[in-house]
Amino acid sequence: MAASTTAFHPDPAASSPPPWILLDANAHIGECPDDTASAMDLTSNDKLIEVSIRSVEPPAPSRLFVHCPDLESDVFREDPRILCTAEGFLLLRVHIGSRTGIKSLEKGDYFVFQAAQDEPPSLRRLPQPLPFSDDSVGLLPRGKHFMVAALSSSADGYHLYVFNSELWAWNFFTKVPVVSPHIPFPIDIRKNAIRLCRHTTSTVITIGGDGGTMGWVDLWSGILLCDLLCSSHTLRSVPLPMPGRYVRRQEKILGCPKAFRGIAVVQGCLMMVEMESCVKRLPEWDRETEFPKFRVDEWELTTYTNRKITNSREDWKFDCTVKASGIRIDDAMRWELLQSGLLHERTSAAIQRNLENLHTCQPILSLDDKGVVYLLTRPKFNQRKAWVIAVDMENNKLQALAEFGTDRSLGLSFAYCPSRISSYMGTPPGN
Fold first, then answer.
1. From what superkingdom does this record's organism come (predicted)?
2. 8 A C-beta contact, residue 186 and residue 242
């Protein structure tokens, strides 16, 4: 049965948490406004820190709150950042120190928040690791225990950092061999797309299984898989579909691919979504955003599924493509879009837009296998105010809309991450 199309209004008094959520990647500094269960630990400088999660059903954003009762909010060098989640675990980076001071080479404290239905959540600070990129770290749940793994590269190969909660210690593995290397692309790679020829991790996925498989994903080109539970660590490559914007239009491949591609493990399968936009830069600058103006004429989404997960690009099967100009919008949803201001500006000479004219990016796949893609959208490039829309790919419909937030500029950073941690939380207090 097709999913219903409704304007979305989350129910804060829901009797049970949603099976998965869209977490704002930047934590909010301060106490959680309701009585959501929290967990506490000490920072590396012996200050109390409290963490809680307020879960709501997508597309509305769920929030993680970080509160230090003994400190002022301005002691954070930057907003605490969610680095990754897997099942009931979440890895958080917190950097305390003056925002105006000189940042040290240290990345701050790393905490693992663990949710459980039969007991209160817990928060544990990890021993200080060697430096690694935020995008290169992932979690492997093992019952009540967990592993944290980060992959880095240098001139002499790949190196693996692994934390085991049973041993409560980090291990460092150098020169991890690649036993099945990246297969050549089926077309010639021009100089303007040389980014396709090197692996730069965009995100990390957890596949699990007997080997404890994790994958370091370069969303432009491919995945490096590693079985963490094996006695010796090796890497094997899984290619991704070629970027459509390069294959069809020979466009330059630069920058972070998270704006255009997303990947998820859903019921043991790899699922990928790619977004392509037809955008033209205009000569003027926008006074509100202080960025150049752009005109968006169209955007489209394409999804793929991979059930075999081998070293063959042929494993990826095309699912469907949806163009924004062809997405069906019923009357209730169109009214919601108009009320939000996405389709027009509230001025005397209101500028009308269509869905295909919105600046849309960061596609995220639903984790419940319902064929829904979530996207961040706004009327102007890099505008502070943003929304999340849900597109039902199977039925070519706009399913839901929710405001993402207006309290801070999202910039060009990754804004949200999907997580199943809500399904491991108990029923909210008072329900």
1. Eukaryota
2. yes
